[in-house]
Specification:
The structure holds two protein chains of two kinds.
Chain A lengths: L1 H17 L9 E6 L18 H7 L4 E3 L5 E3 L2 E6 L5 E6 L13 H12 L14 E8 L2 E6 L6 H5 L15 H4 L6 E5 L5 E6 L12 E6 L3 H9 L5 E3 L2 H4 L8 E6 L4 E6 L9 H9 L3 H9 L4 E3 L21 H10 L6 E7 L6 H12 L4 E7 L5 H4 L6 E6 L4 H9 L13 H12 L3 H18 L2 E7 L1 E6 L27
Parallel strand pairs in A: 1-10, 15-16
Antiparallel strand pairs in A: 2-3, 4-5, 5-7, 6-7, 8-9, 9-10, 11-19, 12-19, 13-17, 13-18, 14-18
Chain B lengths: L1 H28 L4 H6 L5 H10 L6 H13 L5 E2 L4 E2 H36 L4 H15 L2 H15 L15 H6 L2 H27 L2 H9 L3 H39 L4 H10 L3 H29 L9
Antiparallel strand pairs in B: 1-2
Helix pairs in contact in B: 1-13, 5-6, 5-9, 5-11, 5-13, 6-9, 7-9, 7-11, 9-11, 10-11, 11-12, 11-13, 12-13
The chains are: A alpha+beta, B mainly alpha.
Chain lengths: 500, 316
């Protein structure tokens, strides 16, 4: 009896193996989701636990970025500011339909913005739009955004990946329905299992080339790599160590692209000894930044940053020279009253794989300048609430943000994420002036000054911007190799790049 | 006999109760809580306070434990604050999947282990035994995540015979699930089959050297008869306890295997639940796994009792 059962089970198993298990259709793109939120993922674009992978495919923004990070039309076709940069008029695209068949117009835009700014929803996106006073309808294809303080680069803020247009009145259901105007529409949503998106034939830029996108939940990063190797998914992000597995394998393309995420050691500028700008500068210039890239990330996997939170791909990035200067550091320390060197604790945690190596490399790098760093390990759990912005020196980590957003979010004295407790009225004033300056060249100058001010006076030691890396099956076409996933035009992707 | 069973069930219940107390306060002692895990960098100021208030984390630990325990007693495991879903709903399908995995690994591994264990035992120190014994030692010592990765590399990536990681959702029909469960089953079976094989082998060797087998040989019984009537019943008896223990071990071993193969079961879920400080979910999973462990042990003890009359008079 028992034997017969085993026999039956084995037969079933054998049959299942013979017939292809996964719908290996060549018109389905298969992606893996890392289950960031353990099943609590939401399709609401402004939810703190948004499913950013699916959202990028099913929703549209008003603008998207070009190769240089400048805004170009998506659902908006044109935009212009009043002379004082207090009011922005935005022309909307005609003939765009949502997945439920309704057409996109000004009322949807106003609704989307009102919802983001609704204090009852308490979305993290609200802080990005703080300077918006209100949005009004001019006619069906035009809206006016009225600001409470001038901002000449409002379109850059509107590039935020979370500001995606949803149909008027859909706020209560959007988290499940996912009705947007993107190239694919939701067929089924299971953040811990398989979600399926199908081509939206009425997409305004033309029907997608592929029939469907399937998103499988694979939380473990090594399991994702194995699924990729086994041909169960078509592309995945990878670490630089994992990417070595694909070297010399014709079935895959490894893409390394410059990206804006960065990690840093933050020193609280309100706490001794870091309240002295000379100390802050000394402990930053004593380090050789290239060494951080080579030792922490691996050669070629990052770009040098000079304590500059604005990344290379941003139009407002300032060029700063930050070569290692041990003697300069010693002199500054002596001037600040520490002729025999200085000692302090740096808190870190293994929350992200680079966080401990950064602290250790820093410890070695600055020792010759008489700076004695004691690395303190803190638990990863509760790190953001108990250590970061609490201890006087700790490691931080940020994802890519446009210049105006990151400078305001991380350094303006009134920001809740002002992690260095930086309180410099000149710096705040500089940001205000940049926002209201309508001449792009002058504006770039002002944002540049703000970045140089941070290098002279700021409290964060930012050694690098990290490159991004993804491995793509060579069957896929139209995956831009030099940008992150937000640049992918999903409707153009095909699977006939290589014959199988 | 009946008294013994009742005794065992009672002590099992006490063990479970103590376990939940232990797990609750162990998770409580870890730094961070559900809200800091949920909010990440936003775990500051008002947001943190509101979250703690909403999730009821501001009540004293004892009170929260009491609330949870009184619910669990009547089968209500509460709502996962992190996932905002009833725990029973999250656990349901995954429990089925883990049972499917454990069962298929047992059905595949145990008969195989017993069969090869006997062969190794009766062919002691012959080449067959050498191969089997060293293979089993290898299988025992190589960690699951290594053997699992190797299996994927060989059978899925190089040979392409079967899918590597499981992409089926937790609520997939059992046929679909079984199809992609072959490699996890083998990986899981490898480790515990090796234990059983070695146990069976040494007890076969013991029995083969016993006086009653020598007597049977001298009587001139055919080898087949000696094997079936004397060696098998007497050597499998001690193996039953080992089988029981290893099946119980399966329930823990699935944690690693499920993670590597992305298998939608309780093991993978338990890792996430602890990382997310999802207490109600963690508690529920621990209860399920512990119950499985205890029940398996109870059953193997009973099986030994039935098969071995000498134990029945034993008063524990």
């Amino acid at each position: 009896m028992e034997f017969r059962m085993i026999g039956a089970a084995a037969a079933v198993a054998a049959l299942m193996t013979l017939s292809p298990l996964v719908g290996h259709a060549d018109d389905t793109l298969r992606l893996a989701w890392d289950e960031d939120w353990g099943g609590a993922e939401s399709l609401d674009p402004i939810s703190p636990n948004r499913h950013y992978m699916i959202n990028d495919i099913i929703y549209s923004r008003l603008m998207r970025e070009d190769d240089h990070g400048e805004p170009i039309p998506e659902l908006a076709t044109a935009w212009s500011a009043s002379d004082d940069a207090m009011e922005w008029t935005i022309d909307l695209r005609d003939g765009v339909t949502f997945h439920d068949g309704t057409s996109f117009d000004a009322a949807d835009v106003v609704y989307t913005f009102d919802r983001i700014m609704d204090p009852a929803i308490d979305s993290p996106v609200a802080s990005v739009l703080q300077i918006i006073d209100h949005v009004e309808i001019i006619d069906d294809d035009m809206v006016k955004i009225v600001l409470s303080s001038p901002h000449a680069d409002l379109p850059l803020l509107l590039l935020d990946y979370r500001i995606r247009m949803i149909p008027e009145g859909s706020g209560d259901t959007i988290a499940e329905t996912g009705i947007g105007s993107g190239p694919f529409m939701l067929e089924s949503f299971d953040p811990q299992g398989t979600s399926r998106l199908i081509a939206f034939p009425d997409y305004w830029e033309g029907a997608p080339k592929l029939a469907a996108v399937e998103v499988y939940s694979i939380p473990d990063s090594d399991a994702r790599i194995q699924a990729l190797l086994a041909g169960q998914i078509d592309m995945a992000g990878a670490s630089f160590q994992q990417a070595r597995l694909f070297q010399g394998n014709d079935a895959f393309v490894v893409q390394v692209y410059p990206a804006g995420s960065w990690q840093a050691i933050v020193f609280r500028t309100d706490t001794p000894p870091f309240d002295d700008p000379r100390v802050r500068k000394a402990i930053r210039i004593a380090a050789d930044r290239q060494a951080f890239i080579d030792l922490v990330l691996g050669e070629g996997n990052g770009e040098i940053a000079c304590d500059n939170p604005v990344w290379k791909g941003d139009p407002y990035r300032a060029d700063i020279d930050c070569a290692q200067d041990i003697e300069g550091a010693k002199a500054l320390l002596a001037e600040a009253g520490y002729p025999d060197g200085i000692a302090f604790d740096v808190y870190t945690s293994n929350l992200e794989s680079e966080m401990v190596p950064i602290a250790e490399v820093y410890q070695q790098q600055v020792a010759p300048a008489g700076i004695k760093v004691n690395v303190v390990m803190a638990p990863a759990d509760g790190y953001w609430s108990d250590v970061w912005m609490v201890e006087s020196a700790s490691i931080t980590s940020w994802s890519e943000r446009p210049a105006d957003q990151i400078l305001n979010e991380a350094y303006r004295s009134t920001s809740s994420w002002n992690e260095t407790y930086y309180n410099n009225p000149d710096f705040d004033a500089l940001l205000d002036r940049a926002r209201s300056e309508l001449d792009p060249a002058k504006r770039a100058e002002l944002y540049g000054d703000a970045q140089r001010m941070l290098f002279e006076d700021g409290g964060s030691f930012i050694p690098y911007n990290m490159n991004g890396l993804r491995v793509v099956s060579s069957e896929l076409t139209n995956i831009p190799g030099d940008h992150n996933d937000n640049w992918i035009r999903w409707e153009l992707v095909t699977k006939d790049g290589a014959t199988n | 006999m009946v008294r013994l069973i009742i005794q065992r069930i009672l002590s099992s219940a006490i063990t479970l109760a103590l376990l939940t107390v232990f797990v609750f306060f162990a998770v409580e002692l870890l730094p961070g809580d559900t809200c800091t895990a949920y909010l990440g960098r936003d775990a500051k100021g008002d947001r943190l306070e509101i979250c703690r208030e909403n999730m009821g984390l501001n009540d004293p630990a004892l009170k929260r434990f009491a609330t949870w325990a009184s619910g669990a007693l009547v089968g209500d495991f509460g709502v996962s604050p992190y996932r905002n879903k009833p725990v029973s709903e999250i656990v349901g399908w995954r429990m089925r999947n883990t049972i499917v995995l454990a069962l298929s690994a047992s059905l595949f591994g145990i008969p195989l282990a017993i069969f090869f264990g006997i062969i190794a035992g009766i062919r002691r120190d012959k080449p067959v035994d050498m191969v089997l014994s060293s293979t089993s030692i290898l299988a025992m010592t190589v960690p699951e995540f290594v053997s699992a990765t190797l299996l994927i590399l060989v059978f899925s990536i190089s040979l392409g015979w079967t899918s590597g990681v499981v992409t089926a959702p937790a609520d997939a029909p059992i046929g679909v699930l079984l199809g992609s469960t072959i490699l996890p089953t083998v990986a899981l079976a490898l480790v515990f089959a090796a234990h059983i094989l070695r146990m069976v082998r040494s007890s076969v060797i013991d029995v083969m050297e016993s006086e009653y087998v020598a007597m049977a040989r001298l009587k001139g019984l055919p080898f087949r008869w000696i094997l079936l009537r004397h060696v098998l019943p007497n050597s499998l008896l001690p193996a039953i306890n080992v089988i029981g223990l290893t099946v119980a071990w399966l329930l823990g071993g699935v944690v690693v295997i499920e993670s590597v193969f992305n298998f939608p079961g309780l093991g993978r879920l338990s890792v996430d639940a602890v990382a997310d400080r999802d207490l109600p979910l963690t508690q529920c999973i621990v209860l399920i796994l512990a119950t499985g462990y205890i029940v398996t042990n109870l059953l193997t003890d009973l099986a030994s009792l039935l098969l071995n009359p000498r134990l029945r008079t034993f008063r524990g």
